[in-house]
Amino acid sequence: MLTVRNLNVYYGTIYAIQNISFEVKEGEIVTLIGANGAGKSTTLRTISGLIKPKSGDIEFQDQKITDLKPHVIVSKGLIHVPEGRKIIGNFTVRENLMMGAYARKDRSGIADTLEEVYTRFPRLKEREKQLGGTLSGGEQQMLAIGRGLMANPRLLLLDEPSMGLSPILTEEIFSIIRTINQKGTTILLVEQNAYMAFQIAHRAYVLETGRVIMSGDCQILQNDPKIRSAYLGEI
Ligand code: ATP
Questions:
Q1: What's the gap in Å between 42 CA and the centre of ligand 1?
Q2: Which atom belonging to ligand 1 lies closest to the Cα atom of 41?
Q3: Which UniProt keywords are listed (predicted)?
Q4: Which strand ranges, in their side-by-side order, compose the sheet holding 211-217?
Q5: Contact indicator for 154, 77 with CB cutoff of 8 Å
Q6: What is the pLDDT of residue 23?
Q7: Whose CA is nearest to atom 9 of ligand 1?
């Protein structure tokens, strides 16, 4: 569904991504893990058209999207839920959700998706009229994911959904991500919390200073001694 080939991204003269290649197949949850500054967010931002790569190719559903504008990429069903949530504080929960559907024209479809989002996140339904900025951190994360779902994504890029959340809320968000995937949305998940990412992802790519240093099935990677000591906190 998504193929990234030999991607190179620079900020000025400093590279952030060096020759990264990976793929996400339809129906999968694939995770990119790595320490701070490894280049995970940069990879997602490049896929969604927010940063122009120096070289390399990105294909989505067998179509090259490397040079397309972000809104065109969104209209193809590739939706990015950014790090730090980026919800609009003085819009209500409902207004924030409706923003996610801005590129859609199917009014009844939008109403159906809103109902689905409320079913998946009952807390958002309860707080429909509350201002986004007054939600708790976990609720804001739910709102950010809900807004992403409003676009009816085929592929959802999730950047650090566990950031700033308690272990219990992280579990809750990850279980929702798994359900979203089981209902048919393919997911590319960026996480620093490798332990949680391995619980739900099928495959992982490990990034270190802008390069892929390892990849494979999560079941296998999580037993690798290097992964265990570097990313799963084991000695
Ligand atoms: P984190 O987990 O801390 O969010 P990350 O793996 O997502 O890290 P990126 O945010 O992609 O990492 O950053 C990769 C590298 O690019 C880092 O060295 C970072 O300092 C640098 N970088 C990111 N954004 C910019 C920018 N706008 N200008 C210059 N350098 C940047």
A1: 6
A2: 7
A3: Amino-acid transport, ATP-binding, Nucleotide-binding, Transport
A4: 78-81, 155-159, 186-191, 29-33, 203-208, 211-217
A5: yes
A6: 98
A7: 39
Asked if residue 36 has its Cβ within 6 Å of ligand 1, the reply is yes
C-alpha of residue 39 to centroid of ligand 1, in Å: 6
Ranges of the chain whose pLDDT falls below 70: 234-235
pLDDT, one tens digit per residue, over 91-126 is 999 999 999 998 888 888 999 999 999 998 999 999
Q: Where are the alpha helices (DSSP H) in the chain?
A: 40-47, 70-75, 93-99, 107-120, 122-126, 137-150, 167-182, 194-200, 218-221, 225-231
User: What pLDDT is stored for residue 149 in this prediction?
Assistant: 92
The pairing of strands 203-208 and 29-33 is parallel
Q: To which residue do tokens 């504080």 refer?
A: 89
Burial (CB < 10 A; 0-12, 13-18, 19+), residue 62, is exposed
Give the sign of the dihedral formed by CA 8, CA 198, CA 166, CA 154: positive
Pocket test for ligand 1, best of 11, 18, 44, 231 (most atoms within 8 A of CB): 11
